[in-house]
Amino acid sequence: MMSVRLYILLIKASLRSRMQYKFNFFFSTVMASFVHISEFLMVALVMMRFGNIKGWTLYEVCYLYGVMMISKAIYRTLASDVHHLEKYLVSGDLDALLTRPVPVLLALMTQNSRVLFAEVGQGIILLFIAMKALMANGQIGWSAVPLTVLIILTGAIILFAIGLATAAAGFWLTRIESLQNMTEDASQTAARYPLSLYPKWLQGALLVLVPVGFVNYIPTLYLLRHQGGIGMLLGTIAVSFAALWLAMRFWKLGLSRYQSTGS
What we know:
With about 260 residues, the chain is an all-alpha fold. The chain is about 75% helix and about 0% strand. The protein has a two-stranded antiparallel ribbon. A hairpin with a 2-residue loop joins strand 1 and strand 2. The mean pLDDT is about 85.
């Protein structure tokens, strides 16, 4: 409980410092909105032309996209600089975090925090549009609303675990930008769409090596398509906690091997 209160205090302090530059905040929010809108519109236009892709409708893809967007936004809001550990390793700024009277990971998670309003807002809009249409078709009921919240939260945990494990690899590799491009950026972009669109080897990689498929695709098979039974959802929850546990262990191992590379 003490750690939670400390985390909240550090997050508030970080957000206050970011809001000192209001123009930058609003400008970055608007630009992020345009980027995400244009990305989804390209997919939507293609699907509106052909109707569906391998049996997946526009509203189902919209649901996958919305869940991934919100889960990623939660992860990046609550643990922003985990994704930017490389700069701390290269500059030696991690040493300053080691001297603080708080756990290193907690200090890192609360650095440069910012609320990703554009991503969260657009994700909510996409989910609202998708779920309204799917409810009208009788594909889902109102029980899908709390289940969607659960899926988003487990998705955020999985994305945080992937990001933390990738960051921890930096204790050995130092330069991890290329690795992050694969394990975080590329994999998350791929998982915005049904994994059934990809070859089997890539599906396996996105479910086993980098389990982003459990962020939205696997639970969506149960929720929207009624496949696999409740075990699909329970398995997703189990994967999220297992991934978090493994990532935390890997982080602690890496931190114990850390040697400053800064001046």
